[in-house]
Design goal:
The structure is a single chain. This protein is of the alpha+beta class and 237 residues long. Helix content is 15%, strand content 32%. It has one domain. It has three helices and 18 strands. A hairpin with a 2-residue loop joins strand 2 and strand 3. The radius of gyration is 19 Å and the shape is elongated.
Length: 237
């Protein structure tokens, strides 16, 4: 708990942790708890881990401009050898369980964001905060997963196997310990990198990404256990 003297400059007056007031001192050392700084635990990626078998009508998660809700449609989608093939406008989305190395991966189809020859990924995914990746090809998606595993979380943009921009967030995969100005610079670089390979009319794509796996907001979400129909409270893929 932090007490501020105002809500404009945010000057901290007192900080409490575990009911004890923190007393700053020049010799105080803040410990780096390895459990907090090592929170991305992924199972080894197996061949075909992002494969999505296609049947006649596939559920598609449709982003709604200006909203956190999504709409569900059932569509005929591109395929090859019975597996979904993503396009710049019909993207593949995957959610990797990243806390217990369980190997669970849910894969679905996302519409409403455009990506060409690339992928974006994040370990900020309310409320479970698993690793979420969206892209138009498996290679870049897996490269993005590898990059976030190596940095212990954060945001990343990948294209043609190359990391274009990244913000490491090693504190629980949710926060950065970099200086403020560097965080701002990296955030700006992320958005610039995204715009070089994609389009999204609704602002910051990473904000939207953080809600794709939250299975309490209607109507459909993609989780590490599959595509979930929120209003029916059941998995549909």
């Amino acid at each position: 708990m932090v007490l501020f003297d105002n809500l404009t400059d945010f000057n901290a007056l007192m900080v409490f942790s575990n009911g004890i007031q923190f007393q700053p001192h020049p010799d105080t050392l803040l410990k780096r708890d390895p459990r907090i700084y090592n929170s991305v635990h992924l199972a080894p990626r197996k061949p075909g881990i992002l494969d999505l078998p296609v049947h006649e009508d596939m559920p598609v998660v449709n982003l709604v401009p200006g909203e956190l809700i999504t709409n569900l449609t059932y569509e005929t989608v591109p395929q090859q050898d019975g597996k979904f093939v993503a396009t710049p406008d019909l993207l593949k989305a995957a959610v990797f369980e990243r806390h217990m190395s369980s190997g669970r991966v849910g894969v679905g189809i996302l519409k409403g964001m455009h990506l060409a020859n690339g992928a974006i990924a994040s370990t900020v995914g309310h409320d479970s905060h698993n690793l979420i990746v969206v892209g138009d090809n498996d290679g870049d998606m897996l490269a993005a997963v590898d990059a976030l595993e190596a940095s212990s979380g954060g945001f990343v943009v990948v294209s043609r196997g190359k990391v274009l921009a990244q913000l490491p967030m090693p504190i629980a995969g949710l926060m950065s310990d970099l200086p403020l100005q560097e965080i701002i610079s990296r955030q700006e670089a992320l958005l610039t990198a995204f715009r070089s390979i994609g389009e999204y009319a609704d602002g910051d794509p990473f904000v939207t990404l953080s809600f794709i796996a939250l299975p309490v907001i209607p109507h459909v979400r993609i989780t590490d256990m599959g595509v979930f129909h929120v209003t029916k409270m059941q998995f549909i893929q």
